[in-house]
Amino acid sequence: MIIGVPKEIKNHEYRVGMVPASVRELINHGHQVIVETNAGIGIGFTDEDYIQVGAEIRDTAAQVFEEADMIVKVKEPQAVERAMLREDQILFTYLHLAPDLPQTEDLVKSGAICIAYETVTDARGGLPLLAPMSEVAGRMSIQAGAQALEKSREGRGMLLGGVPGVEPAKVVVIGGGMVGRNAAQMAVGLGADVTILDRNIDVLRSLNAQFGSQAKVIYSTADALEKHVLEADLVIGGVLIPGAAAPKLVTADHIKAMKPGAAIVDVAIDQGGCIATSKATTHAEPTYIVDDVVHYCVANMPGAVPRTSTFALNNATLPYIIKLANLGYKEALLADQHFLNGLNVMKGQITCKEVAEGFNMEYVDARAALANV
Question: Where is the active site (predicted)?
Fold first, then answer.
């Protein structure tokens, strides 16, 4: 199989679909890898680094898309990239289709086989290809929130951990999954006053066992969420429903009632956000103000630490890339229901139920769709 790795073109996105070590693994399996020139330059890998492991360099993304049987990316394809997809071509990347109708429509029209990292599951009910970026984004959310609280960013002018004799900032983490757990870990480490809200009793028990008295672990009701959000100096939104748009848990009325200069980091923004007043921003202009509350809503947060993020992502995605290349998409997906859950769009059909329902479009069962190939 010919695997293509284009250079990412989203604003301030420096990650790359495969590092040279991953390319070498694919080539050792007998496959051909073509890489767009300077695709890895943002994390310190030159074209020569890729050539040394056996990759071939192409001058343009158009050449990569034209030649490759499978495209491996990081972020969802932008409009210009979607226009280059062709029928029967495999696209393996983050898609986050739920809040993105134009992308969904373009992928349907392309006839490509589109597999989303974020909806691949595992036997434990986890999301193994989303987890590494959730870890990064969760940890980064506290860094971003700490900066958003600075007066120069129009925040309250607070240090997260305070100092002796001065209270620390109150950090409220909504959602105790991978994002929330990592955000809480960083906030606790900085000495903040941390509260985590979740509705899964097993998750709450696990969080309580991890943090003990270092963080308050609260069952999330409408009343509890309102109380803690209004008391917060910093709110981290980390709620995820796999494949679906994030629920709007923090309302516009909540925002109006928050402390002036408080901050919100909506890590769920790539799935539409869990804060009613959220809108996607970029690393170039990461924040904006609504009702005196600083909003940080960058949709590709891990792109700010691309070297760490790329290696973490490659560690998770490489086995799946090898399966697709060795077996072909049909055999690889049918052999593993968890991998099959990653199939969002195939040959003009939407095979992710949550996406289809969100846009009131026709849904086709993924296994049934593959059986007809």
Answer: 96, 270
**Which two structure tokens, joined as six digits, stand for 131?**
């987890």
Pick the CATH number of 130-304 from 3.30.830.10, 1.10.1040.10, 2.60.120.10, 3.40.50.720: 3.40.50.720
Binding residues for substrate: 15, 75
Q: Which residues are annotated as a binding site for NAD(+)?
A: 134, 198, 220, 239-240, 267-270, 298-301
Round to whole Å and give the CA distance between 25 and 182: 30
| Span 363-371, average pLDDT | 93
Cite the annotated binding site by residue number. Answer: 15, 75, 134, 198, 220, 239-240, 267-270, 298-301
Helices (H), 6-88: 20-28, 47-52, 61-67, 79-82
Question: Residues 20-27: what's their mean pLDDT?
Answer: 98
Confidence band of 363 (pLDDT split at 50, 70, 90): very high
Active site residues: 96, 270
